[in-house]
């Protein structure tokens, strides 16, 4: 299955990117939890892909999502989230990471561009200093932050509550 081949370990990804870099391809790194895939994610990743030739998506591990998002998260386990993201046409490689941010990945992978969604500004990107140190351009991409997994889960909970009251 295509999606399985592009979900790589850190060492495998470093090797794959070295081959792509040797072809003078511009590498872009995007990251996120991608807990329940929604249109905001798709637009973010399409925007990230437009910044270069190769799109690498770093997905927070289950433990990382729990630390960031709290109780009840993630909804989907990391391997399933990785497989869903890997199936998107804009995505070339996926890696699951356990660190609190992607600074170690920026250092290891040294992409040309590091993208963040529109819920960030150039000044609020947590990894900005590391990106600057390695000459990695930071780009804010995607549509306005009108979509979130948290809001989607809240809507589902409200609908379920309404159904129980009416049922």
The separation of the N and C termini measures 42 Å
Order of helices and strands: HHEHEHHEHEHEH
Shape assignment: globular
Enumerate the strands of the largest sheet in spatial order, edge to edge or round the barrel.
3-2-1-4-5
Largest sheet: 5 strands, parallel
In total, the number of strands is: 5
Radius of gyration: 17 Å
Helix content: 40-55%
Helical stretch tally: 8
- What is the residue-averaged pLDDT? 89
| Structural class by SSE content | alpha/beta
- pLDDT < 50 runs, ≥5 residues: none
Strand content: 15-25%
Overview of the structural elements:
This protein is α/β, with parallel strands linked by helices. Helices cover 46% and strands 16% of the residues. It has 8 helices and 5 strands. The chain has a 5-stranded parallel beta sheet with strand order 3-2-1-4-5. The chain is globular, with a radius of gyration of 17 Å. The mean pLDDT is 89.
Helix-strand blueprint:
Blueprint: H1 2-5, H2 10-22, E1 27-32, H3 39-49, E2 54-60, H4 62-69, H5 78-86, E3 93-97, H6 103-109, E4 113-116, H7 128-133, E5 137-140, H8 149-166
Parallel strand pairs: 1-2, 1-4, 2-3, 4-5
């Amino acid at each position: 299955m295509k999606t399985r081949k592009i979900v790589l370990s850190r060492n495998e990804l470093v090797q794959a990117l070295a081959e792509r870099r040797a072809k003078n391809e511009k590498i872009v790194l995007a990251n996120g939890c991608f807990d329940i895939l929604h249109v905001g994610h798709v637009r973010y990743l399409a925007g990230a892909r437009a910044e270069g030739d190769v799109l690498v998506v770093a997905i927070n591990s289950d433990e990382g999502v729990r630390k960031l998002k709290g109780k009840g998260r993630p909804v989907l386990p990391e391997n399933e989230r990785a497989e869903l993201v890997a199936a998107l046409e804009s995505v070339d490689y996926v890696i699951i990471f356990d660190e609190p941010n992607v600074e170690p990945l920026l250092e290891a992978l040294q992409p040309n561009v590091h993208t963040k969604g529109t819920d960030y500004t150039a000044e609020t990107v947590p990894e900005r200093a590391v990106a600057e140190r390695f000459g990695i351009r930071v780009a804010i991409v995607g549509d306005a932050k009108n979509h979130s997994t948290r809001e989607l889960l809240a809507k589902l909970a409200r609908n379920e509550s309404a159904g129980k009251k009416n049922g």
